[in-house]
Amino acid sequence: MAFWTERVVPRIVDRALSTDDVMGLRELACAGLRGRVLEIGFGSGLNTGLCPAEVERIDAVEPSDLGWELSARRRAGSRVPIERTGLDGQRLAAADEQYDAVLSTFTLCTIPDVELALAEVRRVLRPGGSFHFLEHGRAPDAGVERWQHRIDPVQRRVFGGCHLSRDIPALVAGAGLAVGDVLAEYQPGPGVMRPWTFGYLGTAEKRLAA
Ligand SMILES: C[S@@+](CC[C@H](N)C(=O)[O-])C[C@H]1O[C@@H](n2cnc3c(N)ncnc32)[C@H](O)[C@@H]1O
What we know:
The protein is of the alpha/beta class.
């Protein structure tokens, strides 16, 4: 399974999550990023080039060496300096309140202890800083959610630990971030794919201490 997870899954992700539709959603997720940005689960760098001019640098956290290799061409063409600063979103090397923004796309489904990772996101964001997320997760329809729970054990094994049934906005709010407007809807596709296509696009703010 290690060969599949380490050498094949990052290539599948790179292909499957770079369609025109998904790239349009990525652009929306990157809108409003500025200053010093941390991207958790950088993958093959599919968000590179979508960041607004206000972004000064990107620190990337990515455990997969193949993902990082696949991002080489995109990084080389980047206007913004990008540095791989860590391997695990659950344990960030960064000091407290170091980032103006944190970006996560299709990563909160995969990090084993997502609550820990979100606590780290909150810790490293400066007060007033924003967390931008584009994620798939728990569907609002009971029937689809039941299927998500049924499929989850296989999904986790086949797709590098990916969970289908995480309620992303609730997890973000649970970390103490103020969740703003969230676009939550199924992406286009056949009904049978609904366990995989329910997505969340939104931002959350680390509020200034009262
Ligand atoms: C489905 S891929 C998405 C990649 C990329 N964010 C994108 O939008 O294309 C999930 C990513 O999460 C990364 N990941 C897995 N465990 C992680 C962890 N503990 N900390 C940070 N990233 C992790 C994987 O290596 C992979 O790159």
